[in-house]
Design brief:
Blueprint: H1 2-13, H2 16-23, H3 27-42, E1 96-103, E2 109-119, E3 126-136, E4 147-152, E5 160-169
Parallel strand pairs: 3-5
Antiparallel strand pairs: 1-2, 1-4, 2-3, 4-5
Length: 172
């Protein structure tokens, strides 16, 4: 202990250059060297494992976590089935189109040409497209040239999936 006090006194009295000349190390190296033994004592080194590190990727089937089905636990009391009243509107959402009748030669069937005018999403050019739909006309009310309104319905035949709702404008 007395030696440590003597060393501290000599280093305080001497300038850093003189102390460096005596010990042969810089003050930064001395402080790092003094701190290193304290750290080694505080944190013991981890034990060395013998052999390669075990792989975590593929475990044997017996060691894999088990994924079982959840068991259904029946409730103690049964709840009655609640029936909600049916909505007043028709089922589903029906598309509606307006077009011109181009053929009425078939019985109870008309062919309606629907023109679609839209802008191209990227080039903004106006594009005209037309689609022909076969529609069911129960009373044979529509004739060639009439403007009609048709709605989507369940499949009525191989090609008929539309139904005539009303004749909007009669051809001249």
């Amino acid at each position: 202990m007395a030696e440590n006090e003597n060393e501290n006194e000599t280093t305080e009295e001497q300038t850093p250059v003189e102390a460096e000349a005596e010990t042969g190390a810089t003050p930064v190296e001395e402080t790092a060297a003094a701190e290193a033994p304290a750290e080694e004592q505080a944190a013991p080194a981890p034990p060395q494992q013998s052999g390669p590190k075990p792989k975590r990727k593929r475990l044997p089937r017996a060691l894999r976590p088990q994924k079982g089905r959840r068991l259904h636990v029946p409730s103690a009391e049964r709840r009655p089935i609640s029936r909600l009243p049916k909505p007043e509107h028709e089922r589903g959402r029906h598309q509606e189109r307006r077009g011109v009748v181009v053929s009425d030669a078939m019985d109870k069937t008309i062919v309606v040409k629907v023109d679609m005018i839209r802008s191209h999403p990227r080039y903004k050019k106006v594009i005209r497209r037309s689609v022909k739909f076969h529609a069911h006309d129960e009373q044979n009310a529509a004739h060639v040239g009439d403007t009609v309104r048709i709605v989507e319905t369940r499949p009525l035949s191989k090609t008929k999936r539309w139904r005539l709702v009303e004749v909007l404008e009669v051809a001249k």
